[in-house]
Amino acid sequence: MTPDGPRQGEGNCPLPLFDAPTPLAEQGSCQRPPPLPLGALVTGATGPIGRALVLAFARAGHFVGVHYHSDEPTARELLGQVESSGGRGVLLAGDLRDPDAAGRALATFLDAHPTIDVLVNNAGLSRDRLLVFVEPAEWREVLSANLDTAYTLTRAALRPMVARRKGSIVNVSSVSALSGLPGQSAYAAAKAGLLGFTRALAREVGRYGVRVNAIAPGAIESPAVDRLAPDRQEHLRVAACLERFGRPEEVAQVALFLGSDAASFITGQVLPVDGGASS
Asked: What 3-state class would DSSP assign to 164?
């Protein structure tokens, strides 16, 4: 209290000297507003890992940005699942290889939620074939879908993160970047580039309170794995120490950890989520 009444800006609710619990009978209009949820933007949200990422962050209480390139029905269904469970989010459309599209996606997110606290760069694609059969256009497509998308949105998101001196960027790479697989020369090159991007950027922005890490998933349950020949599936399964495929939810939990304050002293790192395949 000041001699003239409650402290400035407190109305009829003077600030306590200590944060002691207030009896229910005395709370009334003096209750503090609930804290603002953290904002998490997930790119490439319509695939198995992307979907698991969105749901994990939403269940943890984040406002989620659900990005999609072309599959609007799946993205809309995913957002509906988030909202039906009491969460909140926004759809973000666009080809993130285009810097203008990335800027629009971020603007749409920030119009719906005031902060971007976590960015998960999950967008990407693969064109699996031996290098001698990879056409130049396919090579450029794979590199652009995996690297340019991370560049454009990260560059845009860094401005608000640096301004707040807080933020976490999680790049979804692949075990292919750690131990190359035949038929994935283009994909491995792109995902390995994402690891270099992660380490260099962590050095650039650490002083501003922004952390940058990467996840390297191994063989994860998905329609793409289901389409592989049985002998190829078995080879990938036994390559892991755990001798099974990973689940998208297991990847998502690592991203959730890296985006949280529980990982506040972790940056510039790559965490394999591959059942020990790269060990």
From this structure: helix
Asked whether residue 195 is domain-assigned, the answer is: yes
pTM: 0.86
The answer to whether position 85 is within a domain reads yes
Average pLDDT, the chain: 90
Q: In CATH, what number is assigned to the domain containing residue 54?
A: 3.40.50.720
Catalytic status, residue 68:
no
Q: Is residue 223 part of a domain?
A: yes
User: Which of 192, 204, 215 is closest to 154 using CA atoms?
Assistant: 204
SS (H, E, C) 9-63: CCCCCCCCCCCCCCCHHHHHHHCCCCCCCCEEEECCCCCHHHHHHHHHHHHCCCE
Residue 226 confidence (pLDDT) above 60: yes
Contact assessment for residue 68 and residue 92, using Cβ atoms and an 8 Å cutoff: yes
Range of the domain at 122: 42-273
Tokens of 130: 């031996």
Alpha helices (H) along the chain = 24-27, 48-59, 72-84, 99-112, 136-143, 149-164, 185-205, 223-226, 230-239, 248-259
Domain count for the chain: 1
At 246, phi and psi to the nearest 5?
A: -80, 165
Q: Please identify which of the residues 68, 151, 187, 208 carries the catalytic annotation.
A: 187
Residue 201 maps to a domain:
yes
- The answer on pLDDT for 7 being more than 50 is no
